[in-house]
Amino acid sequence: MRLVRYGAAGAERPGLIDSRGLLRDASAFVSDWNPAYLSSHSLARLRNLDPGTLPIVAGQPRLGVPVAGISKFLAIGLNYSDFAEAMGRPVPVEPVLFTKAISCLTGPEDPIVLPRDSTHTDWEVELGVVIGAQARYVEEAEALGCVAGYCLLNDLSEREYQNDRGGTWDKGKGCDTFGPVGPWLVTCDEISDPQNVDLWLEVNGTRWQDGNTRTMIFPVAKLIAYLSCFLTLEPGDLIATGTPPGLGSAAKPPVFLKAGDSMRLGSSRLGMQAHQVRAWQRC
Fold it and tell me: What domains appear along the chain, each with residue ranges and CATH number?
């Protein structure tokens, strides 16, 4: 199933995309796609639902973040072998963990707003993993059983904030609009192998990233097992799993996002996002 949330920001309704690509209103079936409805039991119930019984949503409404109530947004850095090679960096011995602010979450076609005085905002297309069952000290062999589904996300990053301002990476990772997610959550029964998902990203029509999760250093199951040793993963938690090569900051000379740019990113398995980049303005 492809689960979506549609409507104005803050007033989204649950929906799903049927086999014909039509948006269906699922609000008669579920109050929202929140952590309470991400368990294997709830998703099994959902698989028995005939989407044709749900009303078609007219027009092309805005899509929001496909999961409501995300409480943790965890992210992994330097997790692709071809990325590490391209950057001339050693392969990490353990996963590199940082966090992104929940307030940076935004929809798959919402504008990207550059932080005030930003000069080094970069892109990172990634596979997102949404947890569906509590995981604490979970074994790697059982880790994928804790997954509700997968989604496309962009780990936008202000590199000056991240690398030149001291402290942790987090200050360059959690700016408003720096976490677009969607267009939908693909339930785990549709992606049996998360280590074979294509990912691409374009800026102003130029392809910058073109990779596949098969080159991950730490696969999804390993990441879940590893993270569960340090914190309890709860239903609705979102994990960004790293990015393939092709960042603007790695270009010679470097290229960064500027107001007026357009950005598209996608995957044949996860759908596509499209964003316009805007300058920060005082409200």
Answer: 69-278 (3.90.850.10)
